[in-house]
Hints:
- Helix content is about 50%, strand content about 20%.
- With about 425 residues, it is α+β, with helices and mostly antiparallel strands.
- Strands 1, 3, 4, 5, 6, 7, 8, 9, 11 and 12 form a ten-stranded mixed beta sheet that branches. Strands 2-10 form a two-stranded antiparallel ribbon.
- Strand 3 and strand 4 form a beta hairpin.
- This is Lipoprotein-releasing system permease protein.
- Belongs to the ABC-4 integral membrane protein family. LolC/E subfamily.
Amino acid sequence: MKFELFIAKRLIGAKDYKSSISAPIIKIAITAIALGVVMMLIAVATGIGLQEKIRDKIAAFNGHIVIHHLDNNNSNTSERPILLAQPFYPSFTSVTGVSHIQAVAKKYGVIRTEDDFEGIVFKGVGEDYRWDYMEEYLVSGRLPNFNDSIKYSKEIMLSTYTAARLNFKLNDQVVVYFMGDNAQRKPRLIAFDVVGFYNSGFEEFDKNYILGDLAQIQRLNKWDKNQVGSFEVFVNDFTEIDQVTGEIYQTIDSFLDATSIKQSYASIFEWLSMFDFNIILIIGVIILVSGINMVTALLVLILERTPMIGTLKALGSNDWSIRKLFLYNAAYLIGKGLFWGNLIGIGLLLVQKYTKIIPLPQETYYVAEVPIFINVWIIILINIGTLLLCLLMLLIPSVVVTKISPSRAMRFE
């Protein structure tokens, strides 16, 4: 065992160490580090959690990237069809990073009741639709069933927002009026069956979208089975969405365009990007405060052990050896703070993750409760970063050891 580590262990285990003048200051330093770790874990888990939750909600209704006609200026309606038989469908093998692609179409409509009406966007989806996103937001009922045995399925999924506004219940019939191809054609109406209610918490989508059978839009627009409105693409890694969007644009035909949700909802993603800066700022401030507390504790420890330092120097120990002794001591205190901080912080995060006891105003944050993202590697990085940065800050005050002369120090014994 190294000499410095041996002396540090003896100091830590000494009884007089726990009842010394420095004991309250050391406890404050450990508490500051523990609270700092708790705050850092909460900031990262909630910040990234909110980003992912909102991102998933937007992707549930649009995919990560939409392939559409260049002249289709309104993404909420499919005016011109795209041939389903594309080189990239049903598998986008020419671009790496794509996990799924699905064909959809959208059409404006109006829900009419005896007392009221509501404008909606009917989103037609097929058998390739990725329901796992929407399944999370299913409040009651079930997902619509579309298969080849039913030529035009009348099952739809309605939002709780629209249902509450127009007083619809499960298994009710919803009559939707669709405009014709031109001004001369009369509106066409179709009666749909409500089989499920969803609530994403994103009012912009909840008050507009109805999910139904793609074949219904193909029939209304007089398209054949090989014609759709657009393609929605999902990526494996959202951080690479800009690169994948560019690659998709280079791959598809010249009359098609590729637009990512970061482009379509730029204001929301600019707001979300502010969370990254806030997280970095919080972590920086907390590490600085924790480091200052440890600097204070280390200085007190050094001053309290001045006679011991003099004795060690008289016995032949060099300045760096004694500095390492106190750095080992400080590392133990930092580690103790990290242990309690992780225990409390991860505990609080797990409680929120599985009980959702802390709510959020959904109209402001698009989620009803504080979302939690837990990543083991991020937690490890926070702990290692805190330990290293605090120790680096402690190198400066440890220079005090070099200023202590053996003859003066030993007079205080």
